[in-house]
Amino acid sequence: MSKLLTSGKYFHILVPLISVVLGLMVGAIIMLAAGYNPILAYQSIVESVFLQPYYTGETIRAMIPLVLAGLSVAFAFRTGLFNIGVEGQLLAGWFVSVATAIFFGHLPKVVLLPLSILAGGIAGGVWGIIPGFLKARFKVHEVISTIMMNYIALYTTNYLIKHYLYTQGERTPNIPDNASLASPMLANLTQGSRLHWGFIVAIIAGLLMWFILWKTTRGYELRAVGFSPGASRYAGINVERNIVLSMAFSGMFAGLAGTMEGLGTYQYMMINASFIGIGFNGIAVALLGLNTVVGVFLSGALFSALQTGGLTMQSDAGVPVDLINIVIALIIFFVGSSYVIKWVLNRLAKRGEKN
Amino acid sequence: MSYAIEMRNIRKEFPGIVANDDVTLQVKEGEIHALFGENGAGKSTLMNVLFGLYQPDAGEIYVKGQKVNISDPNDANRLGIGMVHQHFMLIDNFTVAENIILGSEPTRGMALDMDKAVKIVRDLSDRYGLDVDPLKKVEDITIGMQQRVEILKILYRGSNILIFDEPTAVLTPIEIKELIEIMKRLVKEGKSIILITHKLKEIFEACDRCTVIRLGKVIGTVDISDTNPSKLADMMVGRKVNIPVNDSPYAPKEKVLEIKDLTVLDSRKVPAVRKLDLEVHGGEILGIAGVDGNGQTELIEAIAGLRKVHEGQILLNGEDITRLKTRKIIEAGLGYIPEDRHKHGLVLDFTVGENMVLQTYYKKPFAHAGVLQNKVISKKAKQLIKEFDVRTPGEKTLARSLSGGNQQKVVIAREVDRSPKLLIAAQPTRGLDIGAIEFIHNKLLEEKKKGKAVLLVSFELDEILHLSDRIAVIYEGRIIDIVNPKETNENQLGLLMAGRKEAGRQA
């Protein structure tokens, strides 16, 4: 057992699993302390997500942008970059996809839908390229520049909506059906949830990321630069170009996340008073998913389930939904402090050897 | 008679390996005792046991005849055992004195008594002839000086038994000489020293006795006066070592590398290479000798396209590569064994297989239309692992987990296999043990026999003298002389390296 704990592969996977368990446990303690029944609370989450089609649908619906945001962070991370700008790239993608759908509304669906998705992805990519270029050319740290780009995206999209695409309700008009990912069939199947075809886009994006990183020469370069810019440079790899490209891919995934919200969930874009948070949650998703494609899907599912199920927890178990946000925060906290978990595991393994 | 340190029948196991197996080490008072063995032989483990970082599974430790239990480095300090680590543990923006007193500061009342600290450090420095200025900041002093600060740190704590962990790995030849003098002075003052090393030369210059360790076991302890370098080397490696020499005839062929009037600026925009001219021919090894920091790094980086050429021209096989990008230069026939294999030679978190194709991954047959052919890469890696005797569980193992010698073999396998016309080897054996050095020297000589041009840069004069067909001495960014290794010696090279051409000519 102790060997299993500390030997390579399984050890890695153990840290996020333990973090989740610890997060749920500490969350339960807090619920107890506040006078709520944690068993009832978790039970209502599980029951709603797995047994009530509406909540199952909503969970998958919430997963779509979250997974794409997670892929975005993970992709950049794999190449040694910390993309905090997913939020901004997402907003850029959201706006451009919706705007494209509205401006070219007369085009047939086979053209307009792919075009709008593509436009959203490209917009996110462009929003990622800017900090990438600043880093490659002027050594501006991407954490700083991407945070700044978030604000620029937030206020620019708000301005553009207000002045060019405004309709009542502080938002853009609805996109034409020609550009919509919504599906009456999926909605019926899930008793009226907002589940849309975007999950296919998320799956394709996951496969694409895996393929690029592990199967192509481009991915080889990106990973080499991420691990060791020095050795890459000595081997004749263009480090600067790969930094820009990495941010382009990462931004594209983020842009697609926004596109899914625009063409799928909402069918429009609203004026945002502040950040919507999916981009930032993407960081947590990537972290918990160990920056792997499968991991991002799993952790995306977990967070979505907690968030969606949290709503029924309030109505069924009378536990305020805020508590589920505490649980999510706790899980992120424990992943972040994985060093402590690793240390404890190592100690346990050592003790096991002595006995 | 009691020993300063006696470690009896020490055993230390790690999962899967026995790092120390029944090891006995006896260090007399007032001697410099070498602990000699290949990388991974168990030297560091043994010293970490002595220093309290590891607990032995079996065995006993005696200090001055008294049985002791050392459970952490604080115990070791109390017993007068101090260690100069290979990687310095200094705070760069603190002064020398501040670094030395850190952890046991002299106080006056509640306040730190800096004047007293400076005085103590100055006295210690004078007593042992260390010549350290207590008021200078660590970031402003040389590596050799930083090492002396480390020595002062343990002297300040009253250590009588000093462990030096591969202290010369980071030093220049002159600094090494000075360090050996310091060690001898320390011993004269009644200290005992354990010197961990895998360099024969140091042992014969500095030590009184030597304990040889191989694969976790003690092979023997010998008096240095009763042995000779080749005997000791055989003991360490466990077989007859043939130190390779360049004995194939010198028959230079066409010019492969031609450097004309080259000026290269360093990072501060000051010329590091000044109007340098150099030619390297096929079928020869040209050694560049020089003290570190005389433009060697900038010269190589300029050839490899990693640093901009300010003025002048570089031709590779007649092709002007002066302004080409690194990849184009590699494609034109450059092989390069970088000085820092961890930072520049390997992607440590890539597998051995991935590292084997670091310059060729995008070419057929390793890639088709931008898609990696992992099977072909695997096959190539397996072939090279076998051919170059890389000790690794497999091609899917991370480069990081290999020993230094095997990592270097991966770099050399990759570079040599591409069959470059010019092979630059920068400090190719730095930090490696005799077995690995022998292998690498043989590979360089093979390249020469194949008719390739080899440019060898090294701070180890022995290496330069053994391998080169011609030796170019670099001083302040210029080649000040080119000498025949058969007609020169270390003294003459030393003078030339110090820029004294006339004196060097006469020596």
Biggest pleated-sheet summary of chain B: 6 strands, mixed
SS summary, helix count of chain B? 18
Radius of gyration of chain B using CA atoms only: 25 Å
Secondary structural class of chain B:
alpha/beta
Helix-strand makeup class of chain A: mainly alpha
Overall tally of domains of chain B: 2
Helix content, binned percent of chain A = over 70%
Instruction: Tell me what portion of residues of chain B adopts beta-strand conformation.
Output: 25-35%
Largest sheet of chain A: none
| Interface with most residues | A-B, 22 and 31 residues
Q: What's the helix-strand series of chain A? A: HHHHHHHHHHHHHHHH
Shape of chain A: globular
Write down the overall geometry of chain B.
globular
Give the helix/strand layout.
The complex is a heterodimer of chains A (355) and B (507).
Chain A: H1 2-6, H2 8-33, H3 38-51, H4 53-78, H5 86-103, H6 109-138, H7 142-164, H8 184-189, H9 198-215, H10 217-227, H11 229-234, H12 239-266, H13 278-288, H14 293-317, H15 322-336, H16 338-354
Helix pairs in contact in A: 2-15, 3-4, 3-14, 4-9, 4-12, 4-13, 4-14, 5-6, 5-7, 5-12, 5-13, 6-7, 6-12, 9-10, 9-12, 10-12, 13-14, 14-15
Chain B: E1 5-14, E2 17-27, E3 32-36, H1 43-50, E4 58-63, E5 66-68, H2 73-78, E6 81-84, H3 96-101, E7 107-108, E8 111-112, H4 114-127, H5 143-156, E9 161-165, H6 173-188, E10 192-197, H7 200-206, E11 209-214, E12 217-223, H8 229-237, E13 255-265, E14 271-281, E15 284-289, H9 296-303, E16 309-316, E17 319-320, H10 326-331, E18 334-337, H11 341-345, H12 352-356, E19 367-368, E20 371-372, H13 374-387, H14 404-417, E21 422-426, H15 434-449, E22 453-457, H16 461-467, E23 470-475, E24 478-483, H17 490-497, H18 501-506
Parallel strand pairs in B: 3-10, 3-11, 6-9, 9-10, 15-22, 15-23, 18-21, 21-22
Antiparallel strand pairs in B: 1-2, 1-4, 4-5, 7-8, 11-12, 13-14, 13-16, 16-17, 19-20, 23-24
